[in-house]
Design goal:
The structure is a single chain. By secondary structure, the protein is an all-alpha fold. It has a domain at 26-114. It is 75% helix and 0% strand. The protein has 6 helices and no strands. Helix 2 (29-57) crosses helix 3, helix 3 (66-82) packs parallel to helix 5 (101-114) and helix 5 packs antiparallel against helix 6 (120-157). The radius of gyration is 23 Å and the shape is extended. The termini are far apart. 13% of the residues are buried.
């Protein structure tokens, strides 16, 4: 309960809370953190390998190799989602599979697959953008605010 300090609990409610707390399974926090670190690290290492590949074999610079690397990782995540493999990776790795761009690709692909029976426009497109819309909106707004702060700080600094 978030408002325990404000609300007086009856003895029966207190007894029930103690009962539930004793029987609630303990979460393996350290194990979950290690799994997330492992899975997120593997995903990022694979991304580094692709960036190295593009820099070595296609003569990209480190900056210009980033775009095809991200596109490759997104394509791999969508394919793994369509095959049902990414769900198992996410079950094992938890937050480690969500944080990289592959997690966002998985979310969009899952929404598209879940609603494909409703048609391409209203089913796939509509439900994909229900998920992507807030993320994109937040990204654009955050970039605007950060840009505004940078302009104000430059103006105050006199450069």
């Amino acid at each position: 309960m978030s408002s325990n300090a404000q609300k007086k609990l009856t003895p029966a409610q207190l007894e029930y809370q103690a009962f539930v707390k004793k029987r609630e399974p303990k979460r393996p926090v350290l194990k979950n953190c290690l799994r997330a670190f492992l899975v997120g690290g593997i995903i990022c290492t694979i991304g580094q390998v692709f960036q190295w590949f593009y820099m070595t074999y296609f003569d990209f610079t480190e900056t210009s190799a980033s775009n095809p690397t991200v596109a490759t990782m997104i394509i791999i995540a969508v394919i793994l989602t369509a095959l049902g493999v990414y769900d198992h990776i996410a079950q094992f790795g938890g937050g480690g599979s969500i944080v990289p761009v592959t997690g966002f690709a998985n979310t969009l692909a899952s929404a598209a697959l879940d609603h494909r029976s409703e048609g391409f426009v209203l089913g796939v497109g509509g439900n994909m953008f229900k998920i992507a819309g807030p993320v994109i909106t937040f990204g654009v707004f955050a970039a605007f605010v950060i840009g505004l702060i940078a302009v104000v700080l430059r103006g105050l600094g006199g450069s």
